[in-house]
Batch of 4 targets.
Target 1
Amino acid sequence: MSTPPEPHPNVRETAHRIAEMDVRGAAAIADAAAAALGVQAAESDADSSEAFQAALHAAARELHDTRPTAVSLPNALRYVLSGLDGGDGDVEALRRTVERRVARFQAGLDAAQDRLGGIGAGRFTDGDVVMTHCHSTDAIACIEHAVDSGVELEAVVKETRPRNQGHITARQLRELGVPVTLIVDNAAHRFMNDVDHLLVGADSIAADGSVINKIGTAGLAVSARDRGVPIIVAAQSIKLDPRTLTGAAVTIEERDPEEVIDAGTRAEIGEIGVANPAFDVTPPRHVDAIVTEHGQFPPESVVVLMRELFGNGISEPWESV
């Protein structure tokens, strides 16, 4: 087997930034990955369509392996690569195809989030208090559209350890003029009686309607269900995982233990194991609605949308690399 081509340095840099969470959020990850493939295509010196595609597939593999749970990443790669038609056309024609696919994908991301925000805003009425978890640009879009339409909201924002992504949410909601109360993660159940909605994003949604999101979401959903608080998941269709249509399991990413405890403190405590899963799975029975750019769906109906968008199966062009 021949050695795969070396990806462009921009691809390597983008992959590093995604892995280190300098680029975070499903839409941002998808956008960065698509852009990196665009750079790979634009600056490729391949002299045949086969070599051009081999380099693109190697770049896609490098990007794909950074965040195993964020399904927006393979969905973005798949979208860009699906227009290459298995080697037809000369290098310049393929280069232009990639350029068009990247531009179309990036424009679609912005439009999809705007449509989703308008749909999700309809869930809220004047005076509602919304609890959030982690940081989701799709969730923020729902609140932003509601505020822009004149609805007054307040937010209870979980800080979301160990990386405190809730601080980003708190800052962005304050910029929208939303009063914010920041709470530690362990206080969520205590504040659940004070909120009208639990609004979260998703990193992946399975065919059965299960929601894979930042660790802590599943327990939070149980608490919300116990208190009768509706649970809304805001997620563009790039969060739907077509691999689960054929029964594939979702991989839960395990992050560096030093996000939880530094090496010095760990040494002081003594011999302990440290687990740092980045995500958990919320079963569909705990979710009231999944809001996408295509409309609102009860979780058990998401499979219909998934089949409409992806068919009944997919192939991964980079897997042969």
Target 2
Amino acid sequence: MADLQDDIPTTTEVGEDDILPDAPPPVPASLGRGYTPAEQPDTDLLARARTLLAEHPVADGYSGLPWALRHLPWYDLELGEAAVDTDMPRLREGHVGALFWSLHLPEGPGGGCAVAAALEQLDLVRTVIEAHPEGLRLVRTAGQIIDARNRGRVAVVLGPAPGAALEDSLGILRVLRDLGLRVLTLAGTAWAGASGLTRFGEEVVREMNRLGVLADVTGASPATVERTVALSKTPILCTRSAARALRPHPANLPDELLVALGRAKGLCMVPLTAEQTGPTVPDVADHLDHVRDVAGPECVGLSGTYDSGVVHPRDLADASRYPHLIAELLRRGWSETELSLLTWGNVQRVLRSADFTARAAQHRRDASTVRIGDLDTL
């Protein structure tokens, strides 16, 4: 069951009336949604994509499903749920092996206490997973993701959570980590602003490294991204960033930051949203090509951003459509090795790195008791 809440707008797919101003004109339906005749994937490519995904499933870097479910009076993800973009039949059809579940916080004066809102989201996540034991499994480590996959479950990784959930307390960060949090978004906090990380912000990143919590710099200022890349002992994430050179969205990364991210072996997870990547499958593939070429094949991943209220490209309307994207990349000449890193391997590498660094750091460094007022005043 879910709490009785007002309905939220359903996520949509770009249609002929929704084409963005700089998008190409729509093609006839007979040619396939979002494709030109030369780009239309054939059945052989789709079959190859499905075979590859069966071996290297998708680790999806951002899902808004928990927040979407809290507005439904009833749902069943195992049988299928038309009110959301994500359910077990579509996850299986899309060959999704792992999902990063966003812990969304309400905005505005009615949002209430950030800590309480984060804990309520955690409670909802556990309730959803317990209600679907044959399909979902809450995981904390890269090894547990592999175990969940071997048991036929979709692994659920907690995060990203907004940095506001900490309420400037490293103690709260440790509590959230004990409850399973693995990714924290730095943007939108007093300690990660336009000028970069404050001294307290640097202490937050150090404590995140000690705990194995990954830093997400999506939407952060260039100064914050650069300082976090330099300071963090583990790779950092951009859970919803594409290439600004192709589309000037504020959350997309310019090439100089993509280069820095690549050198630090971080991970840019390209979102499947019309606003950030464009209204067609080839548009999304263009961003994946660009990030791979600039940052390297070990630094590009996927972020479905399903159930987050955004508009998706044509033919990528829900979590079942990943084979169509992989077929397009196969058509462009991506190797099996590159695709295996894109879908699964890069996320595994980043999580394993965070786990290893945390184990080592906990032998050298005690839990930080620093407060924001101790460092960022005067």
Target 3
Amino acid sequence: MLPSTPALPAAVLWDMDGTLINTEPLWIAAETELVASHGGVWTHEDGLGLVGNPMTVSARTLRDRGVDLPLPEIVDYLNQRVAAGVAASTPWQPGARELLDSLVAAGVPMALVTSSYRMLSEPFAAAAGCFDVIVSGDTVTRAKPDPEPYLTAAELLGVPIERCVAVEDSRAGITSALASGARTVGVEVFQPVEPRPGLVRVPDLGALTVEALCRIALGEAVRS
């Protein structure tokens, strides 16, 4: 670290789907396939409407659209299909791998905080090799948009949530992060990121550096 660089965040807390890896097309393809196999139609716009939702909410929506399966089976099907796609080739978002490596080099603790279940998040975290803590959708009582996932991550890391920076791309995830008290960055990926008090909006991960995350942790906006 250069002497002029601001103090490091206590931790950076990362959303996974859409933020670090481009899995949303995989989710939408799995949803489309499952609905079609039960005689229904699922559009790209339908899929975008589920971005960032808890898995149980997505499963109920698909069941309401004609998928005649128990909710746990719907959840398992989606996770297995997406996990297979990620295993075939990790679809990193531009700049994600490099930013994670920079934070590791700077000694910043990191957590993966995702609505996806462990069957997807744990293999990805193992491949990434940089997360100190994993909080998955099936390890919390109340998933995003509740603040519990981010509060849990900070507690497991042993750091104050208000000194953490959370990086998100979905409305539900941003709501969760802001409610937790973390400094929050919204990356504009599949959903427009509307202005909110305390939210820093960026067009992509290329706008973030270790120094930028330090300044965000201090309450300075990079782009609002």
Target 4
Amino acid sequence: MQTDSPMIEAIEAWGSPLFVTEYPEHDFLKEDLLSYIYASQRQQTQAVESEVATTAKHQLFESKLDFLAADNPAIMELRRMLEELIGAVASQVNAPYWPPEAEGEAEIIESWFHVTQNGGYHDVHSHPNCSWCGIYYLAPGDANLTARNGVNRFYDPRGNADHYSDAGSAYLNQQGFWDFAPIEGQIVIFPSYLKHSALPYFGEQDRVVIAFNSAVTLV
């Protein structure tokens, strides 16, 4: 049957893929990682040791930006796994654009821990000078998605996507943000340009996460 209708080609443009997984060695390494983090925290001379965006952070402790470079067995194993994970993510996303048989090798270039206490939060920000970033929920404490307590919120990068709403724009997911459940042992990988925040956290236990930035090269 012939029609006069032209062929319609769909082009998926400006996507922002995020990836979620669980660290298989979480139960085995959790206590060693927490012990090292708290020992490091006790040695800090100021709450935000990195001295980066101090006014955007409240009621939390942040390490210097070389946390995963420490000569500690648990941290070295975590770094190895995270770099493999980022390399796999980058290879999957970029496969159509890389030369045939090329593989991506990831290097974590900045990393830090956050120990967030009752009332703590981290205002909206993004991570420059890297391609892929991640958050590892080591000990979420009392954070939970239902109450939006201490969750990481990612914001729609399409600035005008919600300027008008009708049935034809329903596919845009116009809530304008995406909240991740703070599940212990979970790792979220995301492109560096995505603005995100850590919403205010309320709880008796500390909320402890490890965050990292990476660069990827072809090998």
